[in-house]
Amino acid sequence: MARSALGSIFAFIARAAGNVNPLVVEQKKKNIVKDLRSMEPLFRHYIAPIGYSYKKVDVDGVTAEVFKKKKGGSENVVFVLHGGAYVSRMMFYYRLLNKRYSKASGGGTVIHYDYRCAPEATYPAALDDTMKVWDWMLSQGFKAENVITVGDSAGGHLSMDLLMKLHDTGRTQPRAAVLMSPWLDMTASGKSYVENYKVDPVFGIRGKTPSPDEVKTLLMKSELYMWLGDNDRTDPYISPVFAEIDNTYPPIWVTAGGYEMLLSDSERLVENFRKAGVEAHLFVPEGMFHAYPVYQLFPEAQKGLKLICEFIKGKFEV
């Protein structure tokens, strides 16, 4: 199916304003941290729709946000891990999905949180904050088996780190996980890093398709990797495409844009889950770009969100 007119407009906006390719950053003298955080001041105050409540909670220094029905809610939880290249913090457009996620989970609670980001903090700060909020959530009476995680981009990476940490410590996994354009390979070894280099409006640049070595040379100097610190890029917690998956992991639903350089990350993750005998779904709409569903305002994003909510409903049996 061809990309919609609105989808094309959003892709153009992403290329013009949101491109973080190292060559573009250098040519335009961009400040990645400043650019990625530029939308944070917008719409700081959020008012829950009628019939719902919303509050912020301090969890030992980490700000969590709790959205739930005032009456008739369920015990289910959608645990949202926001994206932003481990640089930008929680932004308003994630909250615009609260009601949709709550309805998909049968009136469940939606929990967000604002983990520490680079350059002020590096790995494992974000994972430590995630575990802190996860433990707090369970201390409130919610059960891991009644939780579905939803993460995009760096939040998709963090979702996988959460699953791996729970697995490695012998703890109960969430019921399922949704990952949108997860960023999972810090070595940039997938074929899409080269094949989609000149069509990806967020990470790529028009022109000659470079060799794999040229792509890696460019990407490795990108400020997007500030969050790594001095850690090994092949460590499974840094690059979850290298994690050993077994059949104790929960089902996953994954989407990525057909035009994005990170597409191989999603493909390899789904392949690893399927090889382990774990249910794994992959949806790749033609012509779409990085984390497209979170923007909502064009047909492909609505289609992706519809499928995500159907998956959540199915897993919660509501």
Structure in a nutshell:
The protein is of the alpha/beta class. The chain has helices at 5-17, 22-27, 32-36, 92-95, 98-104, 125-139, 154-168, 192-195, 212-220, 263-275, 299-316, and strands at 52-59, 62-69, 77-81, 109-114, 147-152, 176-180, 252-255, 280-283.
Tell me about this structure.
By secondary structure, this protein is of the alpha/beta class. It has one domain (5-316): Alpha/Beta hydrolase fold, catalytic domain (Rossmann fold, 3-Layer(aba) Sandwich), CATH 3.40.50. It is 34% helix and 14% strand. It has an 8-stranded mixed β-sheet, with helices on both faces. A hairpin with a 2-residue loop joins strand 1 (52-59) and strand 2. The longest helix has 18 residues, at 299-316.
Count of distinct structural domains? 1
Structural shape: globular
User: What's the architecture in CATH terms?
Assistant: 3-Layer(aba) Sandwich
Assign the CATH superfamily.
Alpha/Beta hydrolase fold, catalytic domain
Strand order of the largest sheet: 1-2-4-3-5-6-7-8
Radius of gyration: 18 Å
Biggest sheet architecture: 8 strands, mixed
Strand content: 5-15%
Instruction: Note the run of SSEs as H and E.
Output: HHHEEEHHEHEHEHHEHEH
**Unreliably modeled segments:** none
Number of helices: 11
